């Protein structure tokens, strides 16, 4: 069946023209808010993710997404908000993400300036360590949001449900620093992980440049060393140049990094160009195993591929409350068979994969374009994905489609 024969959602009516929101010319760059500039070499490593890169599954390290090829093989991922984020070389697996507790959807991804007076932490390296309240206190959420505004990254990284994975984990040791007004200006946590202690921290943007980040990192590493043996992993959901410099000064080296990308679907009008004769079908229970077979064939050769069972992979997708079967597509190419797939969730391109025999044909580009089109038609205002920094071909594809950088996630080890 030719793609033209596949039922597609009707196009949305064009929004009413407004003088303050003119539609950009085709190919024109759409301005997107950018993170604030760095505040000095002692900026901490930001927020929490998981011990090693692997999107939407338990972190194991290694990449399970093939490097993009000129024909359009690409990869994307969405971090989980349960115990393990879906981060690895952009695009592995799926796990449910808790609904934002108190962040309006319209504000997620928007960088709203938050005026902050400079706290009394400046010039006070002797400030005593403070205890944090049970679970995820509101002051910690406020601190995470200030860091998100300044540093970029995934909006969900400042949501209570996401923070709870680390800051309220069993066995976690938490600590913080307060300014003279009592406001929390820095916080860190060390919690047990599969391979060893996991460290993450936050420093208020207005408290940087005076040694607070270095003090927090040193205290966190000392705490991790006293708790257990194993490999210490330092996580960042909003890595900055200052944070990278600080971590490097302590002998830590990056073992994983991926860029967070975002696209405004308000004006998206892309149309896919399919290889001749391609037939496209949406996810269903009957076709789920065929999706899995393409996933396994596309990613099997990647280092660290977890090789999940079909039932496990399918359950992780279908068990996600935000999974969207109508946006998740399987492409069948004449002479090859099932050749590529994309899975999607509310506001997310979750995974994209093309088998080796079908690459260099523009199939990944067509799959992502069609998924974004369906999102836009259904009223989705934006879409996110993560792409590994060692996958420049995939990154180039996403930029060409209109995605823009919104931050970087990373993991560091000695």
Keywords:
414 residues, 8-stranded mixed β-sheet, 19% strand, 4-stranded antiparallel β-sheet
Q: What structural category characterises the helix and strand content?
A: alpha+beta
> Could you give the count of β-strands?
12
Query: Helix count?
Result: 8
Which residue ranges are poorly predicted, with pLDDT under 50 across at least 5 consecutive positions? 1-75, 81-123
| SSE pattern, N- to C-terminal | EHHEEEHEHEEHHEEEHEHE
The level of helicity is 10-25%
Can you give a write-up of this model?
By secondary structure, the protein is an alpha+beta fold. 22% of the residues lie in helices and 19% in strands. It contains 8 helices and 12 strands. Strands 1-2-3-4-5-12-6-11 form an 8-stranded mixed sheet, with helices on both faces. A hairpin with a 6-residue loop joins β3 and β4. The chain is elongated, with a radius of gyration of 22 Å. It starts with 128 loop residues before the first strand and ends with a strand.
Summarize the structure.
This protein has helices at 138-151, 160-167, 212-227, 241-249, 288-299, 310-318, 363-377, 392-401, and strands at residues 129-130, 173-178, 184-191, 198-203, 233-236, 253-264, 279-282, 329-333, 337-345, 348-354, 382-388, 404-413. By secondary structure, the protein is α+β, with helices and mostly antiparallel strands.
């Amino acid at each position: 069946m030719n793609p033209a024969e596949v039922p597609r959602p009707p196009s949305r009516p064009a929004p009413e023209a407004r003088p303050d929101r003119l539609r950009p010319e085709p190919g024109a760059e759409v301005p997107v808010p950018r993170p604030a500039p760095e505040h000095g070499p002692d900026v901490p490593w930001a927020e929490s993710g998981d011990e090693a890169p692997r999107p939407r599954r338990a972190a194991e390290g290694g990449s399970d997404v093939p490097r993009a090829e000129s024909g359009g093989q690409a990869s994307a991922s969405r971090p989980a908000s349960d115990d393990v984020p879906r981060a690895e070389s952009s695009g592995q697996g799926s796990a449910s993400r808790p609904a934002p507790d108190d962040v309006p959807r319209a504000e997620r991804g928007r960088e709203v300036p938050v005026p902050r007076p400079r706290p009394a932490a400046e010039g006070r390296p002797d400030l005593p360590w403070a205890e944090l309240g049970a679970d995820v206190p509101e002051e910690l959420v406020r601190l995470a949001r200030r860091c998100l505004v300044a540093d970029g990254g995934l909006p969900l990284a400042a949501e209570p449900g996401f923070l709870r994975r680390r800051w309220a984990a069993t066995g976690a040791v938490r600590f913080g620093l307060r300014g003279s007004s009592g406001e929390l200006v820095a916080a860190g946590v060390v919690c047990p992980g599969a391979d060893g202690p996991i460290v993450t921290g936050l420093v208020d943007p207005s408290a940087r440049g005076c040694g607070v980040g270095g003090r927090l990192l040193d205290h966190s590493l000392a705490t991790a060393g006293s708790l257990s043996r194993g490999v210490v992993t330092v996580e960042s959901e909003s890595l900055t140049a200052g944070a990278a410099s600080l971590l490097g000064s302590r002998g830590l080296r990056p073992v994983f990094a991926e860029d967070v990308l975002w696209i405004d679907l308000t004006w998206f009008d892309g149309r896919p160009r399919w290889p001749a004769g391609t037939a496209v079908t949406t996810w269903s229970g009957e076709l789920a195993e065929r999706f899995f077979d393409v996933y396994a064939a596309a990613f099997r050769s990647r280092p660290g591929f977890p090789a999940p069972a079909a039932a496990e992979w399918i359950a992780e997708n279908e068990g996600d409350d935000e999974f969207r079967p109508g946006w998740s597509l399987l492409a069948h190419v004449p002479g090859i068979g099932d050749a590529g797939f994309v899975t999607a969730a509310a506001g997310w391109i979750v995974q994209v994969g093309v088998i080796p025999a079908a690459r260099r044909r523009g199939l990944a580009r067509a799959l992502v374009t069609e998924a974004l089109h369906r999102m836009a038609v259904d009223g989705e205002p934006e879409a996110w994905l993560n792409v590994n920094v060692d996958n420049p071909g995939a990154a180039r594809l996403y930029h060409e489609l209109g995605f823009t950088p919104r931050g970087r996630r990373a993991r560091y080890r000695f």
